[in-house]
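2024-03-11 09:14:02 INFO worker-7 job=invfold-0412 stage=load source=structure_tokens
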């Protein structure tokens, strides 16, 4: 009888933990580190922590998309992350924070209703591991009807940064020469390319658009120094 009760208790614990992870928008593909700072459900309907990297990423990935720049430091009460332009989406949307420098395998994931927000406190993981905001990117995302990812800008602590336009940060995992970018708004023709340089392990691109701007595609072009071939990567953005 005791053995049966123990099995039932273990099953209930597993089901409860799994439900909590799903409701927080946890990424089940991550392998958490085996410590208190490992990636796991946290208070406030989010998953956060460090994980073990087992696969390499794409040649170029979007790691931050915010209205205005991130603040220099997190206030003790945490930052409120909101997706103001996602209020009319039919389903849940996601907010993600991640470590940008090579070797910093940190993630925060939260699933929020359209127009919703999540509070991101520094005490759970960032402070303990001495991770500064300059090492972290934040962005929102959802999937369109075809399953493709659409990136959504995150507002930090209210709408104050929206007037500054969007700030995009991209992390290259390969060597790039002659990197340049352009933003092609929906219904318009492609414009001129703008050159950009790698700084602090990332490409930073300021987009002077506001919330009334139509969706569009951020195109990034570069030359592969090993082959001499040009490459282009596109990201669908919804201001």
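2024-03-11 09:14:09 INFO worker-7 stage=emit residues=239
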């Amino acid at each position: 009888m005791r053995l049966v009760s123990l099995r039932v208790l273990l099953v209930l614990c597993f089901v409860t933990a799994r439900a909590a992870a799903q409701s927080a928008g946890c990424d089940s593909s991550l392998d958490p580190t085996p410590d208190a700072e490992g990636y796991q459900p946290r208070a406030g309907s989010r998953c956060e922590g460090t994980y073990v990297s087992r696969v390499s990423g794409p040649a170029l990935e979007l790691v931050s998309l915010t209205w205005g720049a991130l603040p220099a430091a997190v206030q003790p009460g945490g930052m409120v992350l909101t997706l103001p332009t996602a209020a009319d989406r039919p389903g849940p949307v996601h907010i993600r924070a991640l470590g940008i420098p090579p070797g910093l395998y940190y993630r925060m994931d939260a699933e929020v209703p359209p127009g919703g927000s999540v509070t991101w406190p520094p005490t759970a993981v960032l402070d303990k591991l001495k991770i500064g905001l300059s090492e972290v990117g934040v962005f929102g995302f959802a999937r369109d009807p075809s399953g493709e990812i659409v990136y959504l800008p995150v507002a930090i602590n209210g709408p104050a940064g929206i007037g500054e336009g969007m700030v995009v940060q991209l992390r290259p995992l390969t060597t790039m020469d002659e990197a340049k970018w352009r933003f092609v708004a929906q219904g318009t023709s492609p414009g001129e390319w703008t050159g950009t340089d790698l700084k602090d392990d990332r490409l930073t691109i300021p987009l002077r658009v506001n919330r009334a701007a139509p969706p569009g595609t951020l195109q990034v072009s570069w030359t592969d120094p090993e082959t001499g071939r040009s490459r282009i990567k596109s990201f669908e953005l919804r201001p």
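2024-03-11 09:14:09 INFO worker-7 stage=report msg="The longest helix spans residues 2-23."
2024-03-11 09:14:10 INFO worker-7 job finished
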